[in-house]
Amino acid sequence: MAKGKASEGKKPHKNKPTSKKYSKYKIEGDKVTRERFCPRCGPGIFLMSTKDRVYCGKCHYAEFVSKKPEAAVEPEAK
Ligand SMILES: [Zn+2]
Fold first, then answer.
1. Is 24 helix (H, G, I), strand (E, B) or coil?
2. How far is the CA of 57 from the centre of ligand 1 (A)?
3. Domain range summary for the chain, segments of one domain joined by +
4. Burial, 73: exposed, middle or buried (Cβ in 10 Å; 0-12, 13-18, 19+)?
5. Ligand 1 midpoint to CA 70 (Å)
6. How far is the CA of 10 from the centre of ligand 1 (A)?
7. How far is the CA of 13 from the centre of ligand 1 (A)?
8. Per-residue confidence of the chain (78 residues) as pLDDT tens digits?
9. What is the pTM of this model?
């Protein structure tokens, strides 16, 4: 293959975007912490999360996240 411009039919290789599953694991000291996983699919299948919702792209499980944590819900004192 001396001539450089005779390559039709063969496309240049492109890397696909990875699943980034590794980014769901965080190491703190000697512990591994994982993001929330799907209760239907089990650990290893992580949930996509928005500010008010988590969603499984595999089984389409969705769960709404309340904005306030339960501990912060208190009756008004004043
Ligand atoms: Zn799932």
1. helix
2. 7
3. 38-66
4. exposed
5. 25
6. 37
7. 32
8. 555 566 578 889 999 998 888 888 999 999 999 888 999 999 889 998 888 899 999 999 999 987 665 565 566 766
9. 0.56
